[in-house]
Amino acid sequence: MSTTQLCASDVRRTFSAANIFLDAVQVNLFQLYHSELIRWNARAGLVSVGDEARILERHFLESALLTKSANLQPDARVLDLGTGGGFPGVPIKIVLSGICLALLDSKRKKTLFLRSLCDRLGLSGVDVFCVRAEELALRNECLQTFDVVLSRAVADLGSLWGLSVPFLKQGGALLTIRGSRAKAEIQALREQRGGVSVAVQPLSEWGCAASPGVCLVTVRHA
């Protein structure tokens, strides 16, 4: 697959294999997203060079699979911590257009990309914050306002849960994609912080054969 183009049939086939069925508008948004990632990558460091050829499976599909979580409702208020190139938040927004999404990253080049991307894709209901999570938590309007906090590997699970708690509504959940260290991190979280409920969902069971060993970890107050 070319790193500068994404074929519409490849997008449809990859998503439909995981039982996510996209309409023509959504397919086109993923194509545009891919083009913008490649165009900005050298200056903003959005994905590793080795990942450019597998953005569809490694980043788009893996992120979009989170829409299968019962915790992620179509009208949810969602915060993506350390979003980088918009993962997992933007692919989720393309699939579930009704969510209200906040994208947070402390790197200016990445947030410049995200603002340009959201404008290019015509996405509404998206806010972009160039700030650290600890600083955003000082803003009263952001406290306990989100149904879901998302993250990919921003920090160890215990630290990530600590960063997420101030933003979550009562009953809210952290959804984070983890790799081979998930089991050890879950054990450490339970030892360090009592009163949490943790669930694990291998992404392979949702049809992501490209990501063996990768799982969705859901954390909430017990």
Explain what you see:
This protein has helices spanning 8-16, 24-44, 55-64, 89-95, 108-121, 133-136, 157-164, 182-192, and strands at residues 77-81, 100-104, 126-129, 146-151, 168-178, 196-202, 215-221. It is built from 8 helices and 7 strands. It is globular and about 45 Å long. Helix content is 38%, strand content 20%. The longest helix is centred in the first third of the chain and has 21 residues, at 24-44. It has one domain: Rossmann fold (3-Layer(aba) Sandwich), CATH 3.40.50.150.
End-to-end Cα distance, whole Å, is 45 Å
Helix/strand order, N-terminal first: HHHEHEHEHEHEHEE
CATH superfamily: Vaccinia Virus protein VP39
The number of helical elements comes to 8
Radius of gyration: 16 Å
- CATH architecture level-2 label: 3-Layer(aba) Sandwich
Q: Total strand count, please?
A: 7
Shape verdict: globular
Can you tell me the residue ranges where pLDDT is under 50 for at least 5 consecutive residues? none
Q: Indicate how many domains the architecture comprises.
A: 1
How is the secondary structure organized here?
Layout: H1 8-16, H2 24-44, H3 55-64, E1 77-81, H4 89-95, E2 100-104, H5 108-121, E3 126-129, H6 133-136, E4 146-151, H7 157-164, E5 168-178, H8 182-192, E6 196-202, E7 215-221
Helix pairs in contact: 2-5, 3-4
